Amino acid sequence: MKIKILLVDDHQIVLKGISFFLNMQPDFELVGEAHNGQEAVEKAEELNPDIILMDLNMPIMDGIEASTLIAKQNPHIKILVLTSFSDRSHIVPALQSGAIGYMLKDVEPDQLAEAIRSAYKGNIQLHPDIASALLAEVAPNAQPVKEGPGRELMEQLTPRELEVLQLITKGMSNKDIASALTVAEKTVKTHVSSILSKLNMTDRTQAAIYAVQLMNESE
Q1: What is the pLDDT of residue 139?
Q2: Which residues contact 129 (CB under 8 A, 6 or more apart)?
Q3: How far apart are CA 97 and CA 65, in angstroms?
Q4: Strands 125-126 and 51-54
Q5: CA atoms of 59 and 42, how far apart (whole Å)
Q6: N or C, which terminus of the chain has less Cβ within 10 Å?
Q7: Cα angle 85, 95, 100; round to 5
Q8: Cα separation of 209 and 56, whole Å?
């Protein structure tokens, strides 16, 4: 079955470019387009897509308000933000509205396609450039790397746990990780629980963003 996609953007050139790319993918079906948030809410109800590629800055109703309404009315629809805004004042509200991911428009086409496929499976998708901007919001108890404690927390992880965490940062589910490491899914769940406990975090998204931030700092 193809992944049904609704594309939401108020710029015709952007719509045409992304539409062309999506239509080239054998496993995608572009079921509709919307030019503002209000249209997106209406077409989400009418077309019942699997994925919505949602712009943020639009007339009549912006993408955050639209995402909030769609998430309440159709929680099974995965919303993937696709925008040019990389500041925290846009990122955090967008994710809090119910979006499963946040991608920037400078993303490589193949990366966007993979993000859509992964989001369809229920995996969080974050553009690498915005991961560090999220750290202060989603992991407020994590100390900055340059102050020391952040890296000390990571050093508590075993080599296998570090390997699992690295795969989590790529948006892989427990099932995908189990397949990649040739272990039981139950084993992966145990590793994830241990990782969260050692990092003093409540969910895998926090841990993934934290790990990406640490890796960025070390480059």
Answers
A1: 42
A2: 86, 104
A3: 7
A4: unpaired
A5: 15
A6: C
A7: 105
A8: 22
Q: How many CB atoms lie within 10 A of CB 101?
A: 22
pLDDT of residue 138: 44
pLDDT confidence of residue 125: 79
Output the six-digit token pair for 112: 């966007």
In tens, the pLDDT along 19-75 reads 999 999 999 999 999 999 999 999 999 999 999 999 999 999 999 999 999 999 999
Residue 35 backbone dihedrals phi, psi, to 5 degrees: -105, -5
pLDDT along the chain (219 residues), means of 10: 95 92 95 96 97 95 95 93 86 84 89 90 76 49 40 79 82 84 93 88 72 56
3-class SS string, the chain: CCEEEEEECCCHHHHHHHHHHHHCCCCEEEEEEECCHHHHHHHHHHHCCCEEEECCCCCCCCHHHHHHHHHHHCCCCEEEEEECCCCHHHHHHHHHCCCCEEEECCCCHHHHHHHHHHHHCCCCEECHHHHHHHHHHHCCCCCCHHHCHHHHHHCCCCHHHHHHHHHHHCCCCHHHHHHHHCCCHHHHHHHHHHHHHHHCCCCHHHHHHHHHHHHHHHC
